[in-house]
Design brief:
By secondary structure, the chain is an alpha/beta fold. About 50% of the residues lie in helices and about 15% in strands. It has helices spanning about 5-15, 30-45, 60-75, 80-90, 105-110, 110-120, 135-145, 160-170, 190-200, 215-225, 235-240, 250-265, and strands spanning about 20-25, 50, 95-100, 125-130, 150-155, 175, 210, 230. An 8-stranded parallel β-barrel has the order 1-2-3-4-5-6-7-8, surrounded by 9 helices. Residues about 180-185 have low confidence and may be disordered.
């Protein structure tokens, strides 16, 4: 059983929802990434989404774009991201790690080499923003052949046909984008999310996480009432930006612990 599936089943049995923080690999620097991942787990994270920096991140707002720019300026690459995952995995054999990024670095490395290297590093799932399900059967199959899950996005504009297509290919969990916009936006509509998730669950037999627009404990708790997982990214990057190098790890851990406490208040 994959670490992702095992984690969601364990949480479901305990009546809890998954907290999935996002950080960009290499931000604020490469040496901070593994300590930040460890701090996220210590603060109550159940899975970690690790962003692969990219120069043209179409789904990301300015906050995560800045994180990618900082990481790329210091020489972060896909291979170096995998090295960081391996370092994290050496000390944590339980927490699932999902890479989130864009097609170009994977295309440059090649499907076969990427899947081999990612699996060897200890990656559990991969979410490629610009791989539509209709065009990546080969990639999804390669991931699963190496024991990794193919994570896909759904959005408020997703049609029943697209939902069915994603449901046929995805594994691990579905990432539902809560709004029409980019990461860091603040116009999340809870009622619209609550309406859409049952429609998704009719065709997708796996957990549904919700991200984009979640910035505090109150919003996280609201989403945890209706979804299986809460994904929070831009607000964590902001915490990194406003922290000194000496305080960044502890500040991120405290922030995530506050989100976890809010979510655990959900009956």
């Amino acid at each position: 059983m994959s670490r992702i599936k095992n984690t969601f089943e364990r949480l479901q049995a305990a009546g809890r929802k998954a907290l999935i923080p996002f950080i960009t690999a290499g931000d604020p620097d490469a040496d901070a990434t593994v300590p930040l991942m460890q701090a996220a787990v210590a603060g109550g994270a159940d899975l970690i989404e690790l962003g692969v920096p990219f120069s043209d991140p179409m789904a990301d707002g300015p906050t995560i774009q800045r994180a990618s720019e900082r990481a790329l300026a210091q020489g972060m690459s896909l291979r170096k991201v995998l090295e960081l995952v391996a370092r994290f995995r050496a000390g944590d054999g339980q927490t699932p790690v999902v890479l989130m990024g864009y097609a170009n670095p994977i295309e440059a490395m090649g499907y076969a080499e990427f899947c081999r290297a990612a699996s060897s590093a200890g990656v559990d799932g991969v979410l490629v923003v610009d791989y539509p399900p209709e065009e990546c059967h080969e990639f999804s199959d390669a991931l699963r052949a190496h024991g990794m899950d193919a994570i896909f996005l759904l959005a408020p504009t997703s049609t029943p046909q697209r939902i069915a297509s994603v449901g046929a290919q995805a594994s691990g969990y579905i990432y539902y984008v809560s709004l029409k916009g980019v990461t860091g936006a603040s116009h999340l509509d809870r009622d619209e999310v609550a309406r859409r998730i049952p429609e998704i669950r009719e065709q997708v037999r796996m957990p549904v996480g919700v991200g984009f627009g979640i910035r505090d404990g109150a919003t996280a708790r609201t989403i945890a009432e209706i979804a299986d997982a809460v994904v929070i990214g831009s607000r964590i990057i902001e915490e990194i930006e406003r922290s000194s190098r000496d305080t960044v790890v502890s500040n991120v851990q405290k922030f995530i612990a506050g989100i976890r406490a809010a979510m655990d208040g959900v009956a």
